[in-house]
Each structure stands twice: as C-alpha cells, then as structure tokens.
Amino acid sequence: MQGVDFIFSILILLMSVIVHEVSHGFTAYLLGDPTAKYEGRLTLNPIKHLEFLGSFLVPTVFYLSSGMIFGWAKPVPYNPYNIKAVNPKIGGGLIGAAGPTSNFIIAGIFSLIVHYGGALSFMTPAFLNVATLIIIVNVSLGSFNLLPLPPLDGSKILFALLPRGLQHIENILEKYGFIFLIIFIVFFGNYISPIIQTILHFFL
After folding, report:
1. Which residues contact 159 (CB under 8 A, 6 or more apart)?
2. How far is residue 86's CA from residue 160's CA, in Å, rounded to a whole number?
3. Are 47 and 105 in contact (CB under 8 A)?
4. Phi and psi at residue 50, in whole multiples of 5°?
5. Read out DSSP for 20-76?
6. Based on the number of CB atoms within 10 Å of its own CB, is 35 exposed (0-12), middle (13-18) or buried (19 or more)?
7. pLDDT greater than 90 at residue 9
8. Do residues 132 and 12 touch, judged by C-beta distance below 8 A?
9. What is the pLDDT of residue 2?
C-alpha cells in the first residue's frame, strides 16, 4: 500500500509542477513574451518539463526519508525585455505569482469536489484519498514557492514590490538567495509546516 501511495504522490507532484511551470510561461506569453512558446514549454507534455534531479531523485529521497513529497520541474524561461503589457518589473511579479496561484486553484477545485460532490458516482473512498493527496501536494507546493528567496517564486513577487531605492536587497538575494534558502530550510524549516497546515485546514 505504501508503494502505491508513493507512486500516486510522485505522479501528482509531477503533474502539479508541470501545471505550475506552464502557468509561468502562459502568463509571460499573455504579457507579450513568447519565449516559452518558442521553446515548446506551453504544453503539458512531461518530456518538455521534467528533469531527473528535481522531478525524480529529490522527491524520492524526501518521501523515503520523511514521508513528505517535494520537487520541481525545469524553470520556464522568460525575457523581461519582451514584456509590453505592463511594467517589466510588475510583469516579473505576475509571472512569479502565476505558478503558486495555479497550485492553489487546483487545490481549490478538488476541495470543492470533496466538500460538495458527495452525490457524485465517482466519490469513492479511493477517489477521496487521491483528491486529498492532490490538495496536500498543491497547497504545499504553492505555499513553499511563496517564500521570498531566489530561486522561489516569492522572490519575484518581492522584487516587483521593492521600491527602486532598495535595489541592493534584490542584488544581494539574487547573488546569495540559494544559500539563504538552504539556511532557512535547515534552521527555520519547522516554522513552515504550521503555516502550510493552517492553509491546508482551510482547504480540507
């Protein structure tokens, strides 16, 4: 049974990160940047998005060591100089926000099905388990990505909101953000779980 749960968890994570990345690319496209389209990334085809380290190895290690599921897909590229619909700085924030937003939308859809779809024929215990897992994975993925540290999406939102006079903060985070992220996870990771649990309580 645990093996089945693992397979479902990995499959749900992979589809969730794919939707996450496509949302970045599609938002950029709507704002005037066709880079993702030209590179064939506006598709749900897993081959275009998945990578061995973030999509398979890391999720497997996380699941086997802690029971948690975590991973990523290849980032969808975008060119801020192509953004015409809004200020490129604001556009970067919108593109960054699109990924986590897509995960919360998925979680919201399945939350509504779980809460109000009791009369539907497919509402079996097995479906409820899968739907709950979809909600957990997407809420966790969306919430974690909102941390304001590169390379996570929250940093792009932060940079869009920073006044011009605080540009040096963006430069520091861009240079050392990944190191800060590792330090945060190691020393303050325990503070993330209660936040995610609170958000999950809302959906579940």
Report:
1. 89, 92, 93, 170, 173
2. 12
3. no
4. -85, 150
5. HHHHHHHHHHHTT--HHHHTT-SS--GGGT--HIIIIIHHHHHHHHHS------PPP
6. middle
7. no
8. no
9. 60
> How far is 132 from 126, CA to CA, in rounded Å?
10
Residues with catalytic function: 21
pLDDT for 82: 94
The reported pLDDT for the residue numbered 18 is: 96
- CA neighbor of 18 nearest in space, from 41, 39, 34: 41
Contact 154, 146 (CB under 8 A): yes
Euclidean distance between CA atoms 141 and 43, whole angstroms: 20
Output the six-digit token pair for 109: 């859809």
Chain centroid to Cα 191, Å, comes to 19
The stretch 10-34 carries a mean pLDDT of 96
End-to-end distance of the chain based on CA atoms, in angstroms?
23
Q: Measure the CA–CA gap between 113 and 129, rounded to whole angstroms.
A: 12
> Is omega for the bond preceding 151 within 30 degrees of 0, making it cis?
yes
Please tell me the distance from the alpha carbon of residue 133 to that of residue 97, in angstroms, as a whole number: 23
Distance CA(153)–CA(140), nearest Å, equals 14
Cβ contact 28:107 at 8 Å: no
Which amino acid appears at position 12 of this protein?
A: I
- For residue range 119-151, list pLDDT tens digits in order: 777 788 888 989 999 999 999 999 999 999 999
